[in-house]
Amino acid sequence: MLTRFDPFTELNRLHDELFAPRTAARAQGFKPSVDILETDEAFELHAELPGLTAEDFSLDVEKNLLTLRGERKAETLEEGRGFRRVERYHGTFSRSFQLPETVDAEAIEASLEAGVLRVRLPKRQAPGARKVDVKVN
Asked: For residue 17, which phi and psi values (nearest 5 degrees)?
């Protein structure tokens, strides 16, 4: 039986083969991309969180470990609408970063603008070595 050539279907198939994320990457779900910068006064962490609000994630510091965790929910469709293609990742995520002891954890500031979380981690003087006096009895 001869099948009719459908260029739209063929282009979609080729696109999927060439540009679709690998299966293992797809299984990992959404994982925000993060850039870390350093200045003389602070470290800065920039995380891409497109479509998320401050209520969709949390930012915690415990024992010099900064943790960003949250969830990017899948889009829900109205009745009568269906996806032709889904490429955006969704799901829960968690990213943790070990902070150097020079970060002042009490002065960390964060802001969310245009889908980018900016976390400022101010530096403090590193605890230095100190001499311990030994008493002789």
From this structure: -70, -40
In a domain? residue 100: yes
**Using CA atoms, how far apart are residues 83 and 77, in angstroms rounded to an integer?**
8
pTM of the model: 0.68
DSSP, collapsed to helix, strand or coil, labels residue 103 as strand
Give residue 61's identity as a one-letter amino acid code: V
Tens digit of each residue's pLDDT (9 = 90 or more) over 67-102: 999 998 877 767 777 767 777 788 899 999 999 989
Please, which residues have CB within 8 angstroms of residue 39's CB and are 6 or more apart in sequence? none
CATH code for the domain in which residue 55 is found: 2.60.40.790
Spatial CB neighbours of 40, under 8 Å, sequence gap ≥ 6: 123
β-strands 65-72, 91-98 pairing:
antiparallel
Q: How many domains does the chain have?
A: 1
